[in-house]
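Researcher: Last one for today. Full complex below.
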Amino acid sequence: MDEIAKALPKSGPPAPEIADWIRSQIRASRFVPGQRLVEVDIIRRTGGSRSKVREAFQRLAAEGLLEIEEFRGASVREASLEEVSQLYRARAALEGICAADFTRVATDDDKQQLREIAEKMETCVEAGSAEQFGKLNSDWHSMIMRVTGNHVIAELVSRLNTPVHHLLFQSFYRGNRMTKAIEDHRAILDAIMNDDPEGAEKAMRQHVENGLEFLTSLDKALFGN
Amino acid sequence: MDEIAKALPKSGPPAPEIADWIRSQIRASRFVPGQRLVEVDIIRRTGGSRSKVREAFQRLAAEGLLEIEEFRGASVREASLEEVSQLYRARAALEGICAADFTRVATDDDKQQLREIAEKMETCVEAGSAEQFGKLNSDWHSMIMRVTGNHVIAELVSRLNTPVHHLLFQSFYRGNRMTKAIEDHRAILDAIMNDDPEGAEKAMRQHVENGLEFLTSLDKALFGN
DNA sequence: GATGACGAAATTGTTGACAATATCATTGGC
DNA sequence: GCCAATGATATTGTCAACAATTTCGTCATC
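Model: Here's the assembly. Have a good evening.
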């Protein structure tokens, strides 16, 4: 009978939640590459315990997002241009094969949905809302991988993207990246609609490579090396 | 002047070393999927402290090798056949693109080395030494990725392989897997020697898919579902 | 003999204190 | 004013004790 209220004895957020929070901070460039993440700071801002925070650090380090040095703690790892380039090559391979698989297994309804997202993105270009464009762009790429049902690849691509997420969003604000992306998407969609897996794969690879090229030129413009 | 001997105050192996040890145990099927890894046990066998062992668990969990449940600790994660299938699709994409890149950038010397490894593997078939064959097979695939210089992909493929490493080695003992692999490698090498990147990519993908098919039939034979 | 309640043992989660190291400010010398 | 040595502070690494939970054996009951 003694019903204990239990009253949410929630001592603090679990480690995965803390890891998510840090990830989101990095994606939002609230934490920038090279920045040190001191334990006490994260504890204060998340309410987690030290062990939880340290656990989160370990996991993020295993994901390649943080770097942990002896007695110096965790810091946001910064990807060199060379590494970003290799990373995009991996993305091209993975998303390329997904585009081909999508073409084979997607229903007409799936394809229609994909087209609708692409159309929404076009309106964003006119409205100049890069923020919304970035969100829809994520949805577009995600949908292709989701429909193929390959969670392993979806997870891999998501991880590969995290380190350059902030650069991606910045890139949409610059030059003609958005219009170029629209063109690429249209080419991919055309191949999909024509039931041409190889064509879709090729177009998707080109799209990813274009993204890298744009990022490279953006890097040159920003840091001029 | 008081030179302190310092006498190796090594209290125990660092966390990464413990993680390596666990990884090797899993690869050698000394630890099998589903098996629980109790902290005290690992501490006794590695000499590491509890925090170190727990750190190692965290990292391995992030790599997808272990599963950690609240108050139940770590256990070796078992990949379903469905997941293995998705994993092989990812490998096909990544190793395929590497085969193409290898064809483009490899020197004649690189290609010659690759051929030599393949030839050594053929002698293994005759000698029936599956162990050595497995080792050389790893070398062969690794070399292609190493020459392309894409460490990101090499790392990804290595991680993707770990969960099925023991199955892989088992497969070489069975049926005609080795001779089939030799054929595949020859086809890939032919394309490479003919400076045909697309052909090399296609052949590599087929090779990986064949590996999956063999693993699937092996699974059916073992567990008959 | 099967089943469920109960309690002891085993195992993991959490916290705090202390040790080792790095980082920073201060001081003294040039 | 600049630079190196020095000490104080901040930060991380490590360990041990305690709390929470699961797991396993025991026993009573049907």
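Chain B touches chain A at residues 54-55, 58-59, 61-63, 83, 86-87, 89-90, 92-94, 96-97, 101, 149-153, 156, 160 (CB under 8 Å). Residues 1-9 of chain B have pLDDT under 50 and may be disordered.
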